UniProtKB/TrEMBL annotation, chains A, B, C, D:
Domain (Gfo/Idh/MocA-like oxidoreductase N-terminal) ranges: 4-123
Enzyme Commission number(s): 1.1.1.18, 1.1.1.369
Gene3D superfamilies attached to this UniProt entry: Dihydrodipicolinate Reductase, domain 2, NAD(P)-binding Rossmann-like Domain
Entry-linked PANTHER family: BINDING ROSSMANN FOLD OXIDOREDUCTASE, PUTATIVE (AFU_ORTHOLOGUE AFUA_2G10240)-RELATED, NAD(P)-BINDING ROSSMANN-FOLD SUPERFAMILY PROTEIN-RELATED
Entry's family note: Belongs to the Gfo/Idh/MocA family.
GO molecular function annotation: inositol 2-dehydrogenase (NAD+) activity
Name listed for the protein in its UniProt record: Myo-inositol 2-dehydrogenase/D-chiro-inositol 1-dehydrogenase
Domain (GFO/IDH/MocA-like oxidoreductase): residue spans on this chain: 131-250
Lineage of producing organism: Bacteria, Bacillati, Bacillota, Bacilli, Bacillales
Keywords: Oxidoreductase
Top EC category: oxidoreductase
Length: 343, 343, 343, 343
């Protein structure tokens, strides 16, 4: 079977994860990995497994053998790398968000469109078997027309303040996955959004003009509703649940527990907590995400989430921020993609 | 054991239910029941069990033997009956809502306060063993300080249009229970409310200037958040779930299934639906509600939900209606209880 | 609606329970209750509610107003009371077991048969909504032909030694309910039985030549299998589960939890224990049991469990005891109902 | 990190599975694979990944580079290969059962013992995260002293008759895993066993003097009890549940569902079936099994299941067959390991 030859830019946690999955995949061949801090790889087994290890990302764009690049570097470098990759005719897999500036994201995607290369955004949750089965059930009409979509999405613990500073804020960093998921499940675009946000966990968010807790309500084109609740700290683990309520029924996805054991004693029936860490929870989804990217190119099939999905989730994150700051409903039509002026 | 002697005004479905529970209770003695359509009782066993059956409610207020009255008549009669009962020195159990007009509700409760009689509002869900256990767990600090309270509250099927016309609207008729529950669970007052409502089920609501689906977000005094989602039609049954998420954990209440059987076949694992009808779901809560009302008077104990709880839930229903109509956040301080002008 | 007029013989725990349910039933009128220790009723509300309270059971048999008697006295009195009741033309509800001696049980039931009165045995679990729904699902063919029926039946705590002494042994006292349930679910008679029993809890059973733990395997007429596991002490509560596995699927009944709350913390997800006490677990079943007995007479409908069911469960208990004692498989055909010699 | 160099004998389904896991493991290096029908590998990716592919197993024993062999060939070849491997000083991983003849198994293991090589038997379920967590909970005293251990173990569908013929019978082929699991969970040896077996599925088992359904009761050294129920055909999927009931509580392991979705409609709440195929259910266990074998040699740690575990499970399978055939309880002491005469 033919393999997709790829280069990975960025050797941090997520870059290394994709590298490992690429090596184990029978649809991908990992040719090169670059990072300006390439010493990150020292002591890892990747150091012995990847043919080209370099600090020079330009070499990856220039390498005629490489079909596609994975952009896993810091967010502020994405737009530049996307444009370079597109101009070099490489297909692109890019981690979320594309950028912190919706107009820049838009401009990068315009270059991608012109170049005619494939572009996949790293919304890994679409590849989760539970959520995908829920999605398929909704599309198959099992619950009829969706009326209310609910997403519970809570991190197990708050990130360090150094991360918060560069995160782009909770909506852009964390809720962006939920924005994508709610669009995916609904099959509709969001028309307006209304956010109530709060600082309830600790001051690290407040000090950085960020929030740690939120309820986000969206109205879709057809008038149906969605609601997301977020927290940066769920002490019982990574809480990732969804619910699609329609005129013919309800589909829910519960958390995956660490194991299925239950212990009944004099005091209670105790079962295990949800998986704690996102890499553990979505381990299989990350594998499938890479394989499906490869298949979409090798077999020329449809992408499950593309450039437009990346752009729209960012627009929602931006609108959410405005809604929270101004304590009002924001229409998505207020977000101007072509203006050089930041909204 | 001493028994509380009561009269019931209103012999409709809910009046008959309380009558039945009063007869079976060892803390209550049902002396009289009145209704202008007293023929409602024909053919029921109550017809033979209640000593006084009358169309004249005045007789109940005048009867010196009667300690307390249950006001179960149509909402537009509540204020008048409350004032009469209070002035007659009777303790009062009143079905929700107290009235459709917050100022009138307020004035009736002023009379109650002056008379010094006990007043319990019919928020039966507080007496449900599941919700009460959740409440007690929250109060005992099991989940720490609440950050997000979520209520899912969906009726199994839409009421007939004749009912919709007189219902006072979804927020006053249905969500009012959820408003009470969210205050009860939080232990905080709501400061502002933001509603997205929709007409997704059928035109019967729209024709009556009402809605059938809503997401309601509230902000409590301490900045914590709450969210209620409502639908007038959940085909799988009466959906009544709650969730209190705090800084030390999460407490949830799932629906009660009709039975605990599960059938696994080639196709699926099938379990039973939630109880369908509210009288079935809250059967035990209705029994406890009456008994605890009696105890609060006989033993002079604290009421679980009183006049203020009735007033505050109504204020929330009114604020919700304004928020939905004007598509904006409404502060509860906007609701003027003393004005003769309707907000 | 016509009511069945009854007398209750025996005013212990179970007699009082039936009395309470009879009083609340709209199909039954409780005329009299007798007990040689009638002072048991002092201080109960029953003392004021039952027209005739007596130490003389003969008066009940002689009372022409009484249609049926409930035999709730100690087991050693059952046979005598059954014969007297039958001879007096009273319908009979009798608590389990009928007697400790299968031949005596058989002789009493012969008298019942000759008298042509109705006879219901107190296997309350058949009236439990969960088990009944499982039964109906099996009969409706939802799981095809049963291959394996499993019953888990464990008491929350061991009875006092004074009870053990008179209990007739675990198989006759406790497993007898499971023997009835396994016949009910199967729809087949048991052909042979094989028991492994043990003393694992404490010496109180051993001292009385009794066991506290057992695995009981049965083979039905059609070759299908059943297995019951018993323990006298499940610290987490009354464990009552069943499972019918057939060629088209599996139906299971899980325990009823005290409430549906779940609490997730750093340590675990904790849910509530099963109901602890048999009267609490089967409260509704006891109500239905009485009402259905009344209906079967008033409306002349089929009994859900009759004389034969009582006899067969006793034969199984006896066979189980032989199997455990002799460490061998016992065929039910070894049990001789007509012999005056105890097997 | 040092890797264990292995050769695999047998390139059927299970041999290929171990080969794939060995290739992906960072503790194992797969040097060679042999099979007399080596054409089995044609068209697989293994064909390009394994350095030595051969029909000559002798070469594997003779290869000084190889540290350990995996014996995955047909059962009738195991004893010969075990002896050869042991005599060549290779550590051994052997699929279950070791042989169909307990005396031959014993003799092979005597050779292993003399050679001083490590020997692991392929009881993959011990490596399942759910069962292992249950085991650890039991060992940690969470449920006190075990009184009853229950295993439900049912295949999703009957094997083809060609497989049945060579399988050694249900107890040796299928129940052997449950025999190992029940010993593992108990921490005790079985003293006696009593089996009721039946032919309820189809005639293919009967024609081959085999059974398809069974209830197996065991008594452990300390008097505690265990029960296994088996079926060759559970239409709803691979049913693998365990339960350890002790004097301080109960630990249960439920099946893993295919996904966590639930769909509530007018008819029911439907959730997904258990995983259907054993390779899918135990996928991770097979990975861990190989890695732990490697670790036990590389780091000289204790094996989780060794030669004795293989022998004892076989003895139980043999005793079960005798019990079923002779319809009696069989003591394990009846099984003579040293006799040349088959029991």
């Amino acid at each position: 079977m033919k393999k997709l030859k790829i280069g990975i830019i960025g050797a941090g946690r997520i870059g290394q994860l994709h590298a490992r999955n690429a090596i184990n995949s029978n649809r991908v061949e990992l040719i090169a990995i670059s990072d300006i801090y390439i010493e990150n790889l020292e002591g890892t087994t990747l150091a012995h497994e990847v043919p080209i290890i370099t600090t020079n990302s330009e070499g990856i764009f220039a390498d005629p053998e490489i079909d596609a690049v994975f952009i896993c570097s810091s967010t502020d470098t994405h737009v530049d790398f996307i444009k370079k990759a597109a101009n070099a005719g490489k297909h692109i897999f890019c981690e979320k968000p594309i950028s912190m500036n919706i107009q820049e994201t838009h401009s990068a995607l315009e270059v991608v469109k012109k170049a005619g290369v494939k572009f996949q955004i790293g919304f890994n949750r679409r590849y989760d078997k539970h959520f995908r089965k829920a999605y398929e059930s909704v599309r198959a009409g099992k619950v009829g027309t969706p009326h209310i979509i609910k997403i519970t999405s809570r991190d197990p613990e708050a990130p360090p303040e150094s991360y918060i500073k560069k995160s782009g804020g909770m909506f852009m960093d964390m809720t962006i996955h939920d924005f994508d998921m709610i669009r995916y499940l609904s099959g509709q675009e969001v028309e307006e959004i209304s956010v109530k946000a709060a600082n309830l966990i600790d001051d690290s968010f407040l000090r950085n003009d960020d929030v740690d807790t939120a309820i986000i309500t969206v109205t879709f084109e057809d008038g149906s509703l969605g609601v997301i609740d977020n927290s940066r700290q769920a002490v019982y683990g990574y809480d990732q649940r969804i619910e699609v309520f329609g005129n013919k029924g309800l589909v829910t996805v519960e958390n995956e527990k660490q194991t299925n054991i239950q212990i009944s004693t004099k005091e209670q029936v105790a079962s295990e907590l949800p998986k704690y860490f996102f890499l553990e929870r979505y381990m299989d989804a990350y594998v499938d995400e890479v394989n499906e990217f490869a298949s979409s190119i090798l077999d020329n099939t449809e992408l499950l989430c593309g450039a437009d999905d990346g752009l729209k989730a960012e627009a929602l994150a931006l609108a959410a921020k405005i809604s929270a700051n101004e304590n009002r409903t924001v229409k998505l039509s207020e977000i101007n993609l072509n203006s050089s002026v930041k909204v």
